[in-house]
Write a structure and sequence with these properties.
The protein is an all-alpha fold. Helices cover 73% and strands 2% of the residues.
Length: 246
């Protein structure tokens, strides 16, 4: 179909971004968290290696289906415009604002990690002993996953829908999908995703980049994992450990 007006182009981009977001998420979620996938790793690995490799598989799959493939499809159809999708935008907000938000996020993680329902789900790798290697794998895994995730949500989807429909509809679309995709984690996390999604969208729109949202989201995931290990009675930090348990 020929696009005759600039509005047609904006609408086409937003529609494609919306399709890629929904399709990419489900293409990632079902194979990443299926029982068959877990069984495949359990048959071939033992001990901590099973959980570690499954975790890395899930996060790498997220980067592929939420970041790399949507970017490849979208930018093969539409010309890449740096002014519309800037790489860096951190200077638009003073650094101390980010530092303050990160401090609040870490504080909330520390408080919520004391709750038993949090400890049953977080950290994602259910390891009894955590050394420097396990911490590095956890943070690194979340980093590669969230890089793709935030590129898709607070980059491609947010900016194309804001361009096509306006800021408020873009916020509603983005936060609505972001919250809905948290339903498998329970109603509390689904509702909590609404204010946090708003913060991520706002920082992205102000800065003109998805990278601030990526850094804030990573600070939440990393601090939640480490605080949950600290408060989980069945887990502990042991930095003298040199090898993974098998």
């Amino acid at each position: 179909m020929k696009l005759n007006t600039l509005e047609d182009v904006y609408f086409s981009k937003a529609t494609m971004a919306l399709v890629l977001t929904i399709a990419g998420y489900y293409a990632y979620y079902f194979p990443a968290f299926s029982a068959k996938t877990a069984q495949w790793f359990q048959k071939r690995l033992t001990g901590d290696k099973t959980m570690i490799n499954l975790f890395l598989f899930q996060k790498t799959l997220g980067l592929l289906f939420l970041g790399a493939l949507p970017a490849l499809v979208f930018f093969s159809m539409y010309a890449f415009q740096l002014n519309k999708y800037p790489v860096w935008g951190l200077s638009a907000i003073h650094w101390w604002v980010y530092a303050l938000v990160v401090l609040i996020i870490i504080s909330l993680s520390f408080i919520s990690a004391r709750k038993p329902d949090i400890n049953t789900r977080i950290p994602q790798m259910r390891l009894r002993t955590w050394g420097a290697g396990e911490i590095g794998i956890s943070i690194g895994g979340w980093a590669i996953y969230l890089l793709g995730y935030e590129f898709l949500f607070r980059g491609l989807l947010l900016f194309t829908t804001a361009e096509a429909f306006g800021v408020m509809p873009a916020l509603l679309i983005n936060i609505g999908l972001y919250s809905a995709f948290h339903l498998p984690n329970g109603m509390k996390e689904t509702l909590a995703a609404i204010p946090f999604g708003f913060v991520l969208c706002l920082t992205s729109l102000i800065s003109g980049s998805f990278l601030p949202a990526f850094l804030l989201h990573l600070s939440l995931s990393a601090s939640a994992e480490l605080c949950s290990v600290h408060f989980n009675p069945g887990m502990k930090f042991q930095f003298s450990k040199t090898n993974f348990q098998t």
